[in-house]
Structures are given as C-alpha cells and as structure tokens.
Amino acid sequence: MSDIADRVKKIVVEHLGVEEGKVVENASFIDDLGADSLDTVELVMAFEEEFGIEIPDDAAETIQTFGDATKFITEAS
Amino acid sequence: MFDLTGKNALVTGASGGIGGAIAAALHEAGATVALSGTRVDPLEALAAELGERAHVLPCNLSDAEAVTTLPKQAAEAMGSVDVLVNNAGITRDNIFMRMSDEEWSSVLEVNLTSTMRLCRGVMRGMMKARWGRIVNISSVVGATGNPGQANYAASKAGMVGMSKSIAYEVASRGITVNCVAPGFITTAMTEKLTDDQKTGILTNVPAGRMGEAGEIAAAVLYLSSAEAGYVTGTTLHVNGGMAML
C-alpha cells in the first residue's frame, strides 16, 4: 500500500474511531464507517492539512469512499 | 465566572453603541477583540480606550468580498476567532406599500447575508478547535414585527432561524449559536426619537425605561462564556418585558 494510502487510513481511523481492517478500498465513510455529514467535512479538512492541498467543495462531494480519497489525493499532490 | 482569557472575539458594528459595549465587555472579561465596523474613527477611539488586546478591522458589510475576507483578517490578527458577535445592522424604514426592492435587499444583505457569510467564515476554525461561540444580535421586532420595518424585521427573524439551523449542525463540535434580541436600547439610533415617541414606546415596556447597551453586552458575555456551553439555538430577549417570549 502506498504511503498516501497509509496516511489517509491513519486519519480515517483516528477521526472516525473505526478499526483499521474496516478501512478498505470501497468502504464508504457514511454507509460503512459511520460518518455523519459533518465528519466528512472534517475528514476533507484533515486531508487538506496532512497533504498541504486544497480540496474544493465540488471535489469534496465526490470523495465518498476511502478509495476515492486516496485517488483524489494521489492525483492532487 | 465568565472568564474569556485566551479567547479571541470578532465583533461587527463595534463603532456603534451596542457593539462598542459588547466589545468592551468581552475585553474586560479577558478576551482579545477585533473591532469591525464601517467608521474607522470610533473604532480607533475604542481600541485606544481598551488598550492592549484590541485590533481594528474596518469592513463594509455590503461588500461581499470584504465580508469573506474579514474572518481571515481577524484570525491573522488574533491567531483565531473563538467568539463571533454579529452585531452590525442597518435600517431603511418605509411603509411596506412604498418599500423599494433596494430598501429591502440592502437591509437583508447587511443584516442577514453578511451574518451568514461571517458565520461560514469562522466555522472551519471553530470546528477544528472543537470550541466556538456565535452570538447574533437580532431584535425584538424580529419576533413581534414593527410597522415600517418589514425589511428589518424579516432580516432579524431570519437570523433566528438561521442561527437555530447552524446550532443543530455544529452542536456536537462544542460550538454554540445563539441570538440576543434587544428591545429599546439607549443608542445614537434611539436618541433621534422625540420625547413623545419615547413616552409612547415606554408605555409598552413594563420596566418603564429604555435599556442600556451594557445590558445587551452582559447577555452576549454570558452566551460567549464557557459556562453557557449547554445553551444553543436560543434567543435571549433583553427588552424590559416589552415582549415576553
């Protein structure tokens, strides 16, 4: 697993308080990992900080799963 | 009680009577304050009076771009915005049948839309800090209505509904959003009233007197404090009993 995916996973695990094993490629933050809409906003904020990137609101809306997040961040950074 | 040491507060309309009193009360409780308003001279004078921990950030609230920038400027000046007091407001009174679109939209823009923009602008920092206090200054007429003030009353009632909605969304993050609704308060705005007008108003005020700016400031100080952490989405009416809501 890439370095980016590890860092994203760490943020998700810490923020949502879920087991690492549950954070798989297709895991949906809301449906599978128990996030509410505010959690998803905060996750995006945490990603921006960790990776020093800007994630615009319309892009943020497309980040629904762990895989979406790593893909977006890999392309952006 | 009500110690705001280490907290940073942005107050709009700080060049006016009520806003100035709010800023002074928060400052006295230990907060660092950013004083915003359109008129620079009174802001500078207030900052000089307060001494340390006071910043002047002039802003025209009808300028969307300036409003969007204000929270950033405040955070740069103070390090964060922990307390936001949306106090600035304007009136463009007219009987409803003669009210122009411009009179309507300018009041809604400054009183309601700028409040929304400022709330949005400070939210990120408050979410991260897991702590925040937003106090929006509404008005008794937002709840009761007032002839000649359809625009003003709509903007002030709008603040209440907006505040409650935001309060719902962010309560779990330690952020509270409340309103203070002043009644008739002694300010430059009410000084313009004639004695007859004042007497007429006071017949509807059980307390039998106008309120003082300091009495609004005290309500804001309470809602800004750590002690008020379980109070959110509410409106604190400070009106001498004029409307018991």
From TrEMBL, chain A:
Modification note: 4'-phosphopantetheine is transferred from CoA to a specific serine of apo-ACP by acpS.
Gene name of this polypeptide: acpP
Record HAMAP family: Acyl_carrier
UniProt key word Cytoplasm: yes
The protein's name: Acyl carrier protein
Sites bearing O-(pantetheine 4'-phosphoryl)serine, chain numbering: 37
Native species: Pseudohalocynthiibacter aestuariivivens
Keywords: Cytoplasm, Fatty acid biosynthesis, Fatty acid metabolism, Lipid biosynthesis, Lipid metabolism, Phosphopantetheine, Phosphoprotein
Residue ranges of domain Carrier in the record: 2-77
Keyword Metal-binding: no
PROSITE patterns: CARRIER, PHOSPHOPANTETHEINE
Family statement: Belongs to the acyl carrier protein (ACP) family.
Subcellular location: Cytoplasm
Signal peptide region: none
InterPro entries attached to this UniProt entry: ACP, ACP-like_sf, PKS_PP-bd, PP-bd_ACP, Ppantetheine_attach_site
Gene3D superfamilies given in the database record: ACP-like
PANTHER family: ACYL CARRIER PROTEIN, CARRIER DOMAIN-CONTAINING PROTEIN
UniProtKB/TrEMBL annotation, chain B:
Function per UniProt: Catalyzes the NADPH-dependent reduction of beta-ketoacyl-ACP substrates to beta-hydroxyacyl-ACP products, the first reductive step in the elongation cycle of fatty acid biosynthesis.
EC number: 1.1.1.100
Family: Belongs to the short-chain dehydrogenases/reductases (SDR) family.
Gene Ontology molecular function terms on file: 3-oxoacyl-[acyl-carrier-protein] reductase (NADPH) activity
Name assigned to this protein: 3-oxoacyl-[acyl-carrier-protein] reductase
InterPro entries in the record: 3oxo_ACP_reduc, KR_dom, NAD(P)-bd_dom_sf, Sc_DH/Rdtase_CS, SDR, SDR_fam
The protein's annotated pathway: Lipid metabolism; fatty acid biosynthesis
Pfam families: adh_short_C2
Native source species: Pseudohalocynthiibacter aestuariivivens
Residue ranges of the TM segments: none
UniProt-listed Gene3D superfamilies: NAD(P)-binding Rossmann-like Domain
Keyword Phosphoprotein: no
Lineage top rank: taxon: Bacteria
Source organism phylogeny: Bacteria, Pseudomonadati, Pseudomonadota, Alphaproteobacteria, Rhodobacterales
Reactions catalysed, as given in the entry: a (3R)-hydroxyacyl-[ACP] + NADP(+) = a 3-oxoacyl-[ACP] + NADPH + H(+)
Keywords: Fatty acid biosynthesis, Fatty acid metabolism, Lipid biosynthesis, Lipid metabolism, NADP, Oxidoreductase
Quaternary organization: Homotetramer.
Keyword Lipid metabolism: yes
Stored PANTHER family: 3-OXOACYL-(ACYL-CARRIER-PROTEIN) REDUCTASE, 3-OXOACYL-[ACYL-CARRIER-PROTEIN] REDUCTASE FABG
Segments forming domain Ketoreductase: 7-188
